[in-house]
Structures are given as structure tokens and as C-alpha cells.
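Need C-alpha cells for this chain, all 494 residues.
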Amino acid sequence: MKLKVFIAIVLSGILGVSCSEKLSPLPTDSVSDEQIFSSVEAAQTALNGAHQYVGHYQNHSLGYIMADVMGEDATITSGAYGRPTYNWNMFSYSYSQVPTSEPWWSGYANYIWPLTYKAIDHANSIIKYVAELPDTPDRNDLIAKAHGLRGYCYLWLVRLFAPTYTLDKNALSVVLRLEPANAASEHIPRATVEATYEQIIKDLTYAYENITDTNIDFITPKSAALLLARAYLDMADYSNAKKYAEIAANNTFDGSNLMSKEEYAAGFRDKNSEWLWSQTFTAATSNIYASIPSFYYLAKQYNGYPYGGKVDSKDMLNTEKAVELWDGYGTVRFTEAFVDMFEATDCRKLFPFYFYEEDGFFTSKFSHRSMLGDADFPMARIAEAYLIKAEAELHLGGDAAGPLNALQVKRGASPTAATLENISIERRKEFYGEGFRLHDIKRLHQPLVRSIHKEHWAAVDLPADSPRFMLPVPENEMLFNDAITPDQQNEYWR
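Here are the C-alpha cells for all 494 residues:
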């Protein structure tokens, strides 16, 4: 092989500048394809690099936060009491992102797109070059994992940069790059939404059928099945969504395979038996502040204050009153209306206090071990299989109440009737902070209504299927990909 394939051993990213710090570029090393693909063990480096791109805070942390703050339940601080609005969040929250090449001042599209395509390129290289190695179980497993990660990446991209499958499957989607990077692969037109999902299903099915490893630091057969269920639900293929949700949950929907109340309330920081795929924040993919816990977490409680009470500003950083104080950015909050959706007995009601009424409530759902950047995060967990099965059964005329009510009881909530509205509400309660809300708004063809909530300083109200729910194709892709014309930019940004 003469083509040089460059693999980032230590991840480099497109780095932004905060109000108070400049983040230093991470070093990179380049190695040839002869070195990387000389053995399965060496080629594992490429898969590790792909996972670093997927898990990088400018892709994962910011992207997942973005998908929630573009909804109605999460908000970001207005700047009261010395907790200023942080630029990482502001442009997406206010729907003011633009497709310029300066992502720090434009939102997250210009981070997410290139980092995800770097992961895809690593996967493409594995799929092509590892196949030239001797046929062994480890070789085949590595190829299957690369297919799984590529499928996840395209699912991530199509949900952000395209309309939903059920709105217009013939609409323009993302660029399907299926070969290692070369001059030709840089000039590929946007595929349709339908073609993108066909590739997603193909990749994830290959992963499900061929992965043998059960290490949840990588995609496994069970997590591939859950991702398939997620994709099929997007497509309104309820039979297959149900099928793969049942596989992911081992056809067990009695609550026994879900986290305990204690595990849920402890703060998402350590993988457990409910998690099917886990992303670990590392020094290469995060830092002490730029991680999921940093943006959500401040303290578990303040001594002397009732649950949900307002903390006096003078006590805000009082280490004697604060329990488990870790001062991150703490800029993502939740509205009073959302907090009120939870019963007192619901273990997911993790909103211990607020400082200022118009800033909303903090959550302690996300925690950390020894420092802010030290935590695991669930990329896929069995609770999603319960709610996918419930929604699929509702459309198929089956037992939708069974999995829905089992999840509710496990969390300490009262069972409800199995309606689409109640399942949607349960998804909001179960997955807040995990990056689901924007995708559900789009998938369920729901409007965005914020103006009724005092905590939203960006009181954006949007109709169902608004083109503003799609991120813009980044400027660099539009400039350098000759196969995409200006009129093929997403509607709102043309």
C-alpha cells in the first residue's frame, strides 16, 4: 500500500478560546499505513483514535449539551450571581448559530462535522486495510467494530444536519464518505436522508452480526442492536425498532436490568450493568472543565437549605455549606416546569437548588470521580430499549404499557397510560442531559415552545418541522467540496 494514512495517536482538535482561558493544541503523531496496519494489534490504534474523535468534548460534550439546550427543558444561565453565560452554549441555545469557519462565535456545527468525519475516516481505513491482514477472529472483530462506529457517526450526523426520515426521506442529508481520505473522497455530493439511513442500517447490522467482543468501551452486539432500534424508530419502522430493542434488553422488560435508584441518583460517572456502551472522558478528549459534569454540576446540596430552595449568593461558594462542591462552568440549568414534572419519589429528580429564579435549577445527575474531567458517560443504555419498545408497541397495537410502566416503577414514578405523549414525557425525564431532546422534537414533529417559561432568556418558539432545527453545513465543507453547490446549504442558512 502506497497511500499514507495519518492516524492521530494523541487527538488534536479544532480548539476554541473561552472567556478566561486559551486551550492549548494537543500534539499529533503521524504514522504510515504500513505501520498502523501491519497487525490487528497495531490497527487497534486507529479504532482508539476514532473513539477519541467521537468522544472529544468539542464533538461529544458540546454536541450532547447542544441537543438538549436547543429544546425547552434545559436553559443556560442569564449571568446572575457571577455565573455568566458561557459561549460554548449560547449560540446553539439561542438558535443563532451560523455556518462560518469561526466556530467559537458560531455554534457547534463547525466542531461536530470535521471531528465526526475524522472518526469516519479512521473507520474507513480499518474496514479497507485490515481486511488485507490474515483472516482471524480478532481481525474480523476489529472490522465489525469499525462498521459499528461508522454507523453511529452517520446516525449522529444525519440527525443534526438533515430533516427527519418521516418528514422527507428524499431531502439532502450528509456526505457519505466510505473510503479512506483521498482527493476524490473530498468531493462527494450530499446523499439523501434515505440513502444515509440505508448505510447506517447496513453498518450497524454488520456490527451486530459480527462483533464478538463484549467490552462496552467499544460498540458491542447489544449496543449495535440498540443503535439499530434507534435508527429504525427514526424511520418509523416499528417492527424492526421493536425487534432490536428486545435484543438490546435481552427481551427483559421487568425492570431487573435497569439501574437501581441508588445508582441513578449517585451521578452518572461509573459504567454499570445498564450501560451498553460507555465513553470515558480522558486527558486527550476533555480537560478539567470541558466535560459533561462541568457544564451541569456545581454541588449536590447546600447545608441549611431545603431541597429545591434558593441558595443565598453569599453562600454560593461556601465550602462549609456546600456538599461535594466542584466548581465547573455550571451554566446549564433546567426550568421549573420541567422540575415539576417529577414526583418527589422519582429518583431522577436531581435538582437540588437554584441561585436565581430566572436561571433555573441545577442538576446533580452528572458527577465525577476525582476531578471534573474524570467520568464515564453512557452512549447507550437499556432504558432506551424500554421506551423504544413502548413506542413501537403503541404503533403496532401491542403491550406498550408493560415496558413503560416497568421503567416508571423502577425509577419511583407512578405508572401512566401508554400514550405517545406520555412516552415522550418519559423520554424527557429519563434522558435529560444525555442529548436526546432535539432529536425527539424533530422525530415526533413537535413544536418548540419556550416563551411560557421565565427561565428562557432566548424565548424561541418554533413550529413543528422548522428548518432551524437543522444545523448548517459548515462553511469549509461548502467552500472546498465542489460537489455541493450554494443552493444545497440547509434551507435556513442559504
